[in-house]
Amino acid sequence: MLHFDFGVTPSKTDYVFEPFKITEVKYRSSESPRPRSGHRIVCDDVNIYCFGGYNPTMPLTNIEIENPTWTPARPLFKELWSFSIATRKWKQHKVIENMPEELASNAMCMNGKYLMIFGGTGAPFGNRCSNDVIVWRTCNGDAKLKILDVQGTVPPGQYGQSVLCHDGYFYTIGGTNGYAYNCDIYRLDLRTMVWEPVFVGTGEEGEPLGRYRHEVARIKDKLYIIGGGTGEWAYELMELPMFDLKTKTWTILIPKADNTSKYTVAPLPRKCHSAVQIDTPNGSQVFVAGGSDVHYVFKDIWRLDLSDLQWTLMRKTVLPHPLYFHSSTVTSYGCMYVFGGIEPKDNDTDRNNTMYKVWLCIPSLTEICWEALLNFHPNLDQVDRKTLLHIGVPIHLVNRLHTPMS
C-alpha cells in the first residue's frame, strides 16, 4: 500500500475493486437528505445533485416544526442538495430565489454546469402541476434558481415526464396531469427560448400509449421510451416505442429476451423504475433498476444493448431491496448511483435516504487508483490543493476535491 506523509491518517480498510457489485455508500457528513420518494438526482462527475421529493409518513419527532422545507400538511421537500462523490459528504444549498411548490415527480437533467428542472406536482397531487423550466448554475454557495422566460407553444403543466438536452434543444416527453396520460414531445430551443411541439398524439394506430414515470434513452436522433404506465397499468419493456426526431415518426421495436442461461427470461412490465445510459466500445447500453408493475416491486437490474436491442439480466447485480419511485444517475466513467425511493415492508411502505453505487463497466486504471486512494485516505479533502498537485495527483482528480474558482 502506498503511504503519503501529508498529515492524514490512512484507513486500515482493504480495497478491492468489484465491478457490477452493488454497495451502500457510507456518508461522512453530519447532515443528509431525509427519506423521500419522487425526487430526482443527476451528476456531473464531481457532485450528485438531489432536488425535491415527498414523504407523507415522516415521524413528527424528526421534524423541526418551524422548518419551512417540510410540513406535515404539505409533505414536500423544498430542498436542493449536493453530494461530493469523492468526500462522500452532503451539502444542502439554501434556495433564496424561485423554489417551486411542485416538488414531486419533476424531471431533471444536466446541461453543462446547469441543472434543468421541469414539471412536477404539488399538494394536492394532480391539481397543481408546473410547466416552468427552472435552471440553476451549480456552485458551492446559495442557490438562485431561475425560471426561464419562454415563448411559443408551451407544454401543459404535468408531472412524471422525462427530459433531455440534445443539439441545443431541451426535450420533454410524456407525463400526466393526474387524469390524462400522454406521450407527447415538446422541445425548447435554448438559443431562442421558444417552445414548439414535436409530436402531439391524436390517438391514431401506431402511436405509443400515454404514460408517466417512464425513462428515455437516446442514440443520435432516435429516442427510446422505456416502460412507464398510468395509475392502474405498467407498460411492457418488451415493446420499445422509438421516436425518430428527423422523420418525426414512431416505430414500436421488439427487443430480444435474455437466453444466456437455461431458461429464457425477459424484464417484466414496470413504471417508477430508473434507467441510466453509458457508452461503451460495443455501443450504448441502458441499465434499468427496480420499479413496480402495480402489484409487485422489483429489485432486479437489466441491461439493454441498444445496438442490437438485446436485454440481459444482471444476475450478480441486484438491489438489496425492492425499490420504486427512486432516482439514479451515472458518471461519465460508468459508476451508477441510486438514491432514495420506496421499499415495501410487511404490507407497508417505507421511504429511505440510502445511496447505492455500482460500477457498470471496467473504468480506466486512473479511476480505480483514485477509488483506492480515497479508500485509504478518506480525509483527503483536508489536504490542500497545492500539496495534492505536488505529490502527483492529477489536476482533474484534485478538482473533484477542491472545486477551482470559476
Automatic annotation (TrEMBL):
Q: Name one Pfam family in it.
A: Kelch_KLHDC2_KLHL20_DRC7
Q: Keywords on this record?
A: Kelch repeat, Repeat
GO aspect biological process, one term: positive regulation of stress-activated MAPK cascade
Q: Which domain of life is it from?
A: Eukaryota
Please name the InterPro entries in this protein's record. Gal_Oxase/kelch_b-propeller, Kelch-typ_b-propeller, KLHDC10
Say if the entry is tagged with keyword Metal-binding: no
Q: What is this protein called?
A: Kelch domain-containing protein 10 homolog
Organism per entry:
Galleria mellonella
* Gene from which the chain derives: LOC113517250
